[in-house]
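Tutorial handout. Part one gives the primary structure; part two gives the three-dimensional structure as tokens.
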Amino acid sequence: MNASVNLPTDFLTAIQNIVGEQRVKTDTDALMTWGKDWTKHFEPNPSVIVFPSTTQEVADLVKIANQFNIAITPSGGRTGLSAGAVASNGEMVVSLDRMNKVLNFYPADRMVHIQAGMVTEQLQDYAESQGLYYPVDFASAGSSQIGGNIGTNAGGIKVIKYGMTRNWVLGLTVVTGKGDVLHINKGMIKNATGYALQHLFIGGEGTLGIVTEAEMKLERQPQDLQVLVLGVPNFDAVMPVLHTFQSKIDLTAFEFFGEVAMQKVLDHGHVQRPFESQCPFYVLLEFEAPFEPIMDKAMELFEHCMEQGWVLDGVMSQNLEQVQNLWRLREDISESIAPFTPYKNDISVLITHVPAFIAEIDQIVTENYPDFEICWFGHIGDGNLHLNILKPANLTKDEFFAKCQVVNKYVFETVKKYNGSISAEHGVGMTKKPYLDYTRSDTEIGYMKALKQVFDPNNVMNPGKLFDL
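Part two.
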């Protein structure tokens, strides 16, 4: 039985009148598919799935939800890792799957106006078709949607050069929790007319309203990207390697992963070990090398790192196919560890603090999870670490998560000690909600709740995510 039977008939009729009967789903398959994201902590229990195709339809749906006091969970590509898009309490899921079109392109501004349901890879492909580049990239680019990326301020593998999603949003069309439509900033680079409201919705996880359209900035295409994968002996060697290369070359990526992560990817059989040496940890560097002197400098820096003992072995890409295969060593990690039901921590500190921070976290993890496989990887060039604890076969999911949550306190106390973040790029959702005060002060959270009241006075927009009112 699904929850839709509890919905008032007048409510169902009203939303069908807005979007059409064919775009309202209450069957069990639809409820289970669109009611969840990639997290496995919470069971989905939505009441109805609705598929609007315009901003006005979204606004009308929000107004009806207010009228009947029905909560809304916005839904994009459902690739989130913090349960921000899980509808677990009978919510109406508003899916943006149909809102995936390019609305306008402004060549002189290097800007494209899109609907928020556009898949990340779709935007990347469109940019390429215009001779341009959309640089926010991550493993879920083939299914994540721009609206979801905006809602969590997604980062990914190129942040060291290009920054987070926030850096690429020039304007938003938003439906607030009241059902008001706001056209914010309208694509302008310079606009000194008071509060930059768009930034409240970037990272707001749909708690203030639903992003329906966005003006996104594009960039020139990178030239002759090269990749180095280097094996390093320990955590302490990672930062000297970063500093050495960064002082002489503009890096577009600096990624990090351990041998456990490497082995899980290799077990899938799609790629081979990049060199014979098996190392405790690896770093992947990417940079543009349109001119021969840059390649010469990269080799010089590589040899210097070898001489210092910071690098044990390494390989540099020789062609585009090798660039793609070396990247797979990093990008295939999430997929490779998924069968092990990983408990994910997505934490960050200032780059300055990374060596000491990693040492402390590693000690906590080693002491508390002596029998668990620990899979380290992350965007270490911008201070973001992904700590994944893999579930042993002899524990149930609930038993395993319970053990992991006991140690969260120690991990997040260390994050707080270094003034870091409990969620660098995955959002807070429901999984990190109990730990928000490790990163945000009570006063800050009070202001955030006050903003929620302004934009969403009836608390219909994604309630129970980020914080509880």
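Part three, for discussion. Residues 397-417 form the longest helix (21 residues). The longest strand covers residues 209-217.
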